[in-house]
Write a structure and sequence with these properties.
Shape: globular
Radius of gyration: 16 Å
Helix content: 10-25%
Distance between the termini: 32 Å
Structural class: alpha+beta
Number of strands: 8
Mean pLDDT: 81
Order of helices and strands: EEEHEEEEEH
Strand content: over 45%
Low-confidence stretches: 122-132
Number of helices: 2
């Protein structure tokens, strides 16, 4: 799964978050999570890669998501480390992303957590629809 987000406060810089398969067993692949920074207005609109494939999380699942920060400007980037089911979260702000200080949250039972997240999102969506 890929995730593309604009850098807050900059309409030409985009972050592309992408997994790359590394090793794994027949039934379970392991990935590393990387990000690439692109300036879409450089080179007369032909783009320029500013930072190619910087490692964000080793031994991650292939999934990554972004959630708007409560300040309405920044983004939370969330990845799941495959070895211990720990969620790693980073803030993407107008100064970029600080890869060295993720917030780490342990979920316990990942299947239970996925169900809870789905219920929360469905509830939020329903609440937003009912508010109109």
């Amino acid at each position: 799964m890929f995730l593309i987000l604009p850098q807050p406060g900059n309409d030409s810089i985009y972050y592309v978050f992408h997994p790359q398969e590394t090793t794994g067993s027949v039934n379970d692949s392991l990935f590393d999570l990387f990000f690439t920074v692109i300036d879409i207005r450089a080179n007369l609109g032909h783009c320029k890669v500013l930072n190619l494939g910087q490692l964000l999380l080793k031994t991650s699942s292939e999934k990554v998501t972004g959630v708007r920060h409560c300040n309405g400007r920044d983004w939370w980037i969330i990845g799941l480390r495959a070895t211990d089911e720990a969620f790693h979260s980073w803030i993407l702000s107008d100064t970029g992303i600080n890869v060295s200080n993720p917030i780490i949250s342990y979920s316990g039972n990942i299947n239970h957590l996925a169900f809870m997240i789905k219920k929360i999102l469905v509830g939020l969506n329903q609440a937003m629809m009912e508010s109109f």
